[in-house]
TrEMBL record:
<keyword id="KW-0238">DNA-binding</keyword>
<dbReference type="InterPro" id="IPR010982">
    <property type="entry name" value="Lambda_DNA-bd_dom_sf"/>
</dbReference>
<keyword id="KW-0804">Transcription</keyword>
<dbReference type="Pfam" id="PF00356">
    <property type="entry name" value="LacI"/>
</dbReference>
<dbReference type="InterPro" id="IPR028082">
    <property type="entry name" value="Peripla_BP_I"/>
</dbReference>
<feature type="region of interest" description="Disordered">
    <location>
        <begin position="312"/>
        <end position="342"/>
    </location>
</feature>
<dbReference type="InterPro" id="IPR000843">
    <property type="entry name" value="HTH_LacI"/>
</dbReference>
<protein>
    <submittedName>
        <fullName>LacI family transcriptional regulator</fullName>
    </submittedName>
</protein>
<dbReference type="Pfam" id="PF13377">
    <property type="entry name" value="Peripla_BP_3"/>
</dbReference>
<keyword id="KW-0805">Transcription regulation</keyword>
<feature type="domain" description="HTH lacI-type">
    <location>
        <begin position="5"/>
        <end position="61"/>
    </location>
</feature>
<dbReference type="InterPro" id="IPR046335">
    <property type="entry name" value="LacI/GalR-like_sensor"/>
</dbReference>
Length: 342
């Protein structure tokens, strides 16, 4: 049975102290270690097959090398998956590891953080003020959407506002909104509907006609029927995302109708299939990878010093829409992708 390689073995092979091995392999900053010495330690560790003990490092630091991302209690859609993927790439640049956890509707964020002792925390879901206050007492570096936008509609990232702006500019005055009927989407449904209602009022439109549907052809057909056959027909619809926009297109076909002539339809997220819909789907593209990288960097910046702060600033600048005379929001912009459905 082979003896486990230790940091002492690496130090002896590299001709340095164990403290130097620890500084190099744990990525600790603030130490005057030359590039030559650093490379000698890395080469010795690789040759001996040495891997630092994660458990020991956690005990020594009082925290792990994990960055914990808390996700909303809803299915993992494409945009959120891209946020997660980009955040993972970002934290791994600094020798950390991302762990994602879907937070149940009942909460419990503080208890989870206490049990895992993460190095940093990313909230991809809004939390009540009391839960945020409890998290702050744990003194874990924290990045969350609410801290980046003063506007209470900010968590919608401007999706609903851009949908309404496009439809209003096309001359539509009576809009519908297709939202998921699943309780798992509750928080995003709430902010999306609030954003659409706010935008309708700003553009002088009637309040939108809201339909909560499943991803089901019969549900969508029934919603389209109510919209198009009522006393004040809806002429355009904002779908919660592209999946619900596809459902509306199916519902139109069930009535022998089509977009945009009978009902203009606009989606959100710009799925790869959006351009293959019949007709090709007009939608709102979310810069999800930029969002993931930005919030990962915000979370881990306190661990990394000045270089990370500069990286955060550059990502903020890159994410800001260049519109003269308006206050830039430090979140990634959304972009209208105009095709044929609206």
């Amino acid at each position: 049975m082979h003896r486990k390689v230790t940091s002492h073995d690496v130090a002896r092979a590299a001709g340095v102290s164990r403290a130097t091995v620890s500084y190099v392999l744990n990525g600790r900053s603030g130490q005057s270690i030359s590039a030559v010495t650093r490379q000698r330690v890395l080469t010795a560790a690789a040759k001996l097959g040495y891997a630092p003990s994660t458990a020991a490092r956690t005990l020594r630091r009082g925290r792990s090398d994990l960055v914990l991302m808390l996700l909303p209690p809803e299915p993992l859609g494409r945009a959120l998956a891209m946020v997660l993927d980009a955040a993972s790439d970002q934290v791994e640049r600094y020798g950390l590891r991302l762990m994602a956890h879907r937070l149940p509707a009942s909460g419990g964020a503080a208890e989870l953080v206490r049990s895992l002792a993460p190095a940093a925390l990313i909230l991809a879901t809004p939390l009540p003020d009391d839960e945020l206050a409890a998290l702050r007492t744990l003194e874990v570096p924290l990045a969350f959407l609410q801290q980046q936008v003063d506007d209470p509609l900010g968590p919608d990232l401007g999706i609903g506002a851009l949908q309404v702006e496009h439809l209003a500019a096309a001359g539509h005055t009576r809009l519908g909104v297709a939202l998921p009927d699943s309780p798992g989407y509750a928080w995003r449904v709430q902010v999306r509907l609030a954003a659409i209602e706010h935008a309708c009022a700003r553009h002088g439109l009637l309040p939108p006609a809201v339909e909560r549907i499943g991803l089901d052809a019969a549900d969508a057909a029934a919603a389209v029927g109510r919209w198009t056959q009522g006393p004040e027909p809806v002429t355009a619809a904002c779908a919660f995302d592209d999946d619900y926009a596809f459902a509306l297109l199916s519902g139109l076909a069930a009535h022998g109708l089509s977009a945009p002539d009978d009902l203009a339809v606009i989606g959100a997220e710009d799925l790869p299939l959006a351009g293959l819909a019949v007709p090709p789907l007009t939608t709102v593209s979310v810069h999800a990878r930029m969002l993931g990288a930005l919030f990962a960097q915000l979370a881990i910046a306190p661990l990394l010093g000045a270089d990370a702060d500069a990286d955060v600033d550059s990502r903020r600048d890159a994410s800001r829409p260049a519109s003269a005379g308006t206050a830039a929001q430090p979140v990634p912009p959304v972009t209208l992708v105009q095709r044929a459905s609206a």
